[in-house]
Amino acid sequence: MCLGIPGRVLEIHDSGGLRMATVDFGGVRREVCLEYTPEAELGMYVIVHVGFAITVVDEAEAERTLGVLRSMADAVTGELGEPIPRPG
Question: Which of 2, 12, 23, 87 is geometrically suited to a Cys-Cys bond with 32, CB 3.0 to 4.6 A?
Protein backbone atom coordinates (compact mmCIF):
# COMPACT_ATOMS: atom_id res chain seq x y z
CA MET A 1 0.00 0.00 0.00
CA CYS A 2 1.23 3.49 -0.81
CA LEU A 3 0.19 6.46 1.29
CA GLY A 4 0.30 10.20 0.80
CA ILE A 5 1.16 11.64 4.21
CA PRO A 6 0.72 15.30 5.21
CA GLY A 7 3.61 17.17 6.74
CA ARG A 8 4.62 20.74 7.55
CA VAL A 9 7.47 22.38 5.62
CA LEU A 10 10.14 23.43 8.14
CA GLU A 11 13.03 24.39 5.88
CA ILE A 12 13.51 24.85 2.13
CA HIS A 13 16.86 24.49 0.39
CA ASP A 14 18.49 23.64 -2.93
CA SER A 15 20.14 20.26 -3.40
CA GLY A 16 21.86 19.67 -6.71
CA GLY A 17 19.48 22.02 -8.48
CA LEU A 18 16.35 20.51 -6.91
CA ARG A 19 14.05 22.40 -4.55
CA MET A 20 14.08 20.32 -1.37
CA ALA A 21 12.60 20.68 2.12
CA THR A 22 12.76 19.29 5.60
CA VAL A 23 9.17 18.25 6.35
CA ASP A 24 7.75 17.37 9.78
CA PHE A 25 5.19 14.56 9.90
CA GLY A 26 3.94 15.09 13.44
CA GLY A 27 7.38 14.55 14.95
CA VAL A 28 9.08 12.50 12.21
CA ARG A 29 11.26 14.64 9.93
CA ARG A 30 12.25 13.70 6.41
CA GLU A 31 13.85 15.30 3.35
CA VAL A 32 11.27 15.85 0.61
CA CYS A 33 11.46 17.05 -2.98
CA LEU A 34 9.26 20.12 -3.65
CA GLU A 35 9.68 20.17 -7.44
CA TYR A 36 6.02 19.16 -8.00
CA THR A 37 4.73 21.82 -5.58
CA PRO A 38 6.45 25.10 -6.48
CA GLU A 39 3.80 27.00 -4.47
CA ALA A 40 4.88 25.30 -1.20
CA GLU A 41 6.45 27.72 1.28
CA LEU A 42 7.71 27.58 4.88
CA GLY A 43 4.97 26.61 7.32
CA MET A 44 2.66 25.18 4.66
CA TYR A 45 1.45 21.60 4.69
CA VAL A 46 2.10 19.25 1.80
CA ILE A 47 1.01 15.71 0.99
CA VAL A 48 4.11 13.56 0.46
CA HIS A 49 4.28 10.32 -1.49
CA VAL A 50 7.57 8.39 -1.82
CA GLY A 51 9.65 11.46 -0.99
CA PHE A 52 7.86 13.92 -3.28
CA ALA A 53 5.41 16.62 -2.19
CA ILE A 54 2.48 16.15 -4.57
CA THR A 55 0.03 18.82 -3.36
CA VAL A 56 -0.43 21.57 -0.77
CA VAL A 57 -3.20 21.21 1.87
CA ASP A 58 -4.43 23.43 4.69
CA GLU A 59 -3.53 22.75 8.32
CA ALA A 60 -7.01 21.48 9.28
CA GLU A 61 -6.98 18.87 6.52
CA ALA A 62 -3.42 17.85 7.41
CA GLU A 63 -4.37 17.35 11.08
CA ARG A 64 -7.49 15.33 10.16
CA THR A 65 -5.45 13.10 7.90
CA LEU A 66 -2.69 12.63 10.48
CA GLY A 67 -5.36 11.59 13.01
CA VAL A 68 -6.61 8.89 10.64
CA LEU A 69 -3.06 7.74 9.89
CA ARG A 70 -2.20 7.49 13.58
CA SER A 71 -5.02 5.00 13.87
CA MET A 72 -3.38 3.01 11.06
CA ALA A 73 0.01 2.72 12.76
CA ASP A 74 1.24 -0.36 10.89
CA ALA A 75 0.67 1.19 7.46
CA VAL A 76 2.39 4.43 8.45
CA THR A 77 5.35 2.57 9.95
CA GLY A 78 5.74 0.71 6.68
CA GLU A 79 5.73 3.97 4.72
CA LEU A 80 7.92 6.17 7.00
CA GLY A 81 9.96 3.50 8.72
CA GLU A 82 8.63 4.58 12.13
CA PRO A 83 5.24 5.50 13.63
CA ILE A 84 3.90 9.06 13.78
CA PRO A 85 4.21 10.17 17.41
CA ARG A 86 0.97 10.86 19.25
CA PRO A 87 0.44 14.46 20.39
CA GLY A 88 1.51 14.87 23.80
Answer: 23
